[in-house]
Structure formats: C-alpha cells, structure tokens
Amino acid sequence: MDYKQLYEKVGSVIGWDFSEIDKRTKVIGKKWRYIDVVKKYVDKEAVLLDIGTGGGEVLLRIARFVKKAYGIDNSKSMIKTARENLVKSGLSNVEFRLADAGELPFPSNYFDVVICRHAPFYASEVFRVLKPGGIFITQQVMENDKENIKQIFGRGQAFGVKPGTLMEKCAQELVFQGFEILKKDEYNATEYYADMQDVIFLLRNTPIIPDFDIDKDQEFLERIEREYKTKDGIRTNSSRFLIVCRKPILSSPL
C-alpha cells in the first residue's frame, strides 16, 4: 500500500479531521483524552512543536494554551489544509511548515514541549530540539486496533503483530536516547460506529486495511455489518498507547 499517496489524498480532502465521525461514535473504556494530557504539561510561556500535525486540527485546539506553536508534516496537502484551518481559527501564534520528522528545521534546545500523535518520530531529533527538562508526549495506534475488522479482511495495519511491540520499541529508543520515562500507558476501548457509512469512510481514509477497495471488498463489508451490528452501532475497538518522557536537566560543569 502506498501510505504516502493515501495520506496526500486524505490531506487534500479532509486533513486529518475525523471529528464528525467522532461525534457519532460511542466509545467505552477510553483512559485519557490526548489534548487533556498535553494541557497538563504546557503553560502560556511554552513553545510547542507538533510532529505529523496533519491538518493542524489538534494543534489548533492546543495552541491557545501556549505562547507559540509549530506544526510540521511531510505532506504538502496536509500543510495546505493546516494553513487554511489556521486562517479560519484566527490564531496568530501558530506556524505550519512542510518538513520531515527525521530532519526538524529548528535549532537545538528550542522547544519546551514536543508532541506527536499517530505519526512517526525520531527520538534523536526530538531530543535535540527539546530544551533540558523539556517534555515529549506521543500517542500511537497499537497493533490490535480494529482487530475484528482486520480478522474479517485477513489483512491490516500491523496485522498479526503482538500488541505492545511498537510501544516497547518506542520506549526503548527513547530511553536509549537519554529520555526519562514519566508515564507509559495503554487502553483497548470498545467503539460503536453509527453505521456502515462511517466504517467505510474510516477504511477509505486511513491505512487500517491496505489497498481497501469498496467494490472488491464488498463481501468483507457485508460480514462486518452482519456480525458486528448492534443496537449501539457497528462494534470494533480502539487501541492506543501513550508515552510521556522528559529530557534530563544536565548538571552545570564544576
């Protein structure tokens, strides 16, 4: 599957905004709200970076709690959408840049907080741009996310990989780089999508099912509706992990 091509397509249409579907989706067992976690570590003097910002939807909701916010993404269409969303927001303390997570276009020791939600990051670059004592927060999708849907298709993002593999890999890389882990958590919540239209929208606009084709995969969609339709909606699951870590404050030389 060409994830880059999919990402560009989604960026030109909706950015990374699934808020309308989220409003209709019932979720049971979710442990945290990402934005609430971030808000605990910022203040009005903080300078913040969002890696993989998408259409800037999340960053624009956080920006009013910080002094300055930057969002980067390697998708031209996402950055275009983010800048359009910025104009609509009326905020003046946000800047979006086209950039790659592996080569952040910022000086060392620049940010108080770096965040990354559902996007790749490089521990070495995050460590470099954070100030001593700075905080890094990442939320990522776990391997068993949408497990029943992947089982029906017989394929999917990280299908068959042991849950927790990515979380441990990320944690190990962060510790190796020199970070201190402050918090590590995960949840596997039950989700009920309002109808199959919302499920199809999700599959069309995310990499959950590689090479999803609504015509070729019709039989799988019919099985999902037949086997997982309930009075609350189409049942599946949302599995996420969270890591909060800190760059140590180096001791002053004697």
Describe it for me?
The protein has 254 residues and is of the alpha/beta class. The chain has a single domain, classed as 3-Layer(aba) Sandwich (Rossmann fold). 36% of the residues lie in helices and 27% in strands. The chain contains ten helices and nine strands. Strands 1, 2, 3, 4, 5, 6, 7, 8 and 9 form a nine-stranded mixed β-sheet that branches. Strand 8 (229-230) and strand 9 form a beta hairpin. The longest helix is centred in the N-terminal third of the chain and has 14 residues, at 76-89. The protein is globular, with a radius of gyration of 19 Å. Residues 6-16 have low confidence and may be disordered.
Instruction: Estimate the strand proportion.
Output: 25-35%
Mean pLDDT: 91
Order of helices and strands: HHEHEHEHEEHEHHEHHEE
How is the CATH topology named? Rossmann fold
CATH architecture: 3-Layer(aba) Sandwich
Q: What is the class in the CATH system?
A: Alpha Beta
Radius of gyration: 19 Å
What is the overall number of helices? 10
Multimerization state: single chain
Poorly predicted runs: 6-16
By CATH, the superfamily comes out as Vaccinia Virus protein VP39
The percent range for helix content is 25-40%
Largest sheet: 9 strands, mixed
Distance between the termini: 55 Å
Number of structural domains: 1
Structural class: alpha/beta
Q: Characterize the overall form.
A: globular
Beta strand count: 9
